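Postdoc handover notes: sequence design on the structure in folder B. Input tokens:
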């Protein structure tokens, strides 16, 4: 049993040495990626600091620091919806049938029997003679 373990360790040794040789190259690539990300972060922070330095405390349209040195980010401006989109929305809404919510619930219960899970019904006449909501 000991020979098998020792043989397994000896055969694994060259593979481990290869991994150790590859590690510095991978580490160098990782460090360069980390440095580039750090540089991007510093550039973005400098741009934010310039923006904050140029904004007046009472300017509501820009990112700024208020009197208490809290960062204030205003809401983004809403884009105008084109007139064609409004017309299309109105046309689509006109195509949809109007159905009262009570009618929808009764039809949904007729198909799925979801109201059987409800123990108390408070509004209206309640259950019909067959025990169903809206039934008779």
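Designed sequence:
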């Amino acid at each position: 049993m000991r020979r098998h373990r020792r043989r397994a360790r000896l055969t694994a040794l060259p593979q481990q040495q290869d991994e150790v040789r590859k590690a510095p190259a991978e580490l160098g690539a990782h460090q360069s990626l980390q440095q580039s990300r750090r540089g991007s972060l510093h550039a973005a922070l400098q741009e934010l600091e310039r923006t904050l330095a140029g904004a007046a405390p009472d300017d509501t349209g820009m990112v700024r620091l208020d009197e208490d040195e809290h960062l204030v980010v205003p809401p983004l401006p809403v884009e105008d919806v084109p007139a064609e989109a409004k017309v299309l929305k109105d046309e689509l809404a006109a195509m949809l049938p109007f159905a009262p919510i009570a009618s929808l619930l009764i039809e949904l219960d007729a198909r799925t029997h979801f109201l059987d899970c409800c123990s108390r019904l408070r509004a209206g006449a309640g259950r019909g003679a067959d025990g169903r909501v809206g039934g008779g």
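Context for whoever picks this up: Helices lie at 2-54, 83-95, 101-112. Don't rerun without checking with the PI first.
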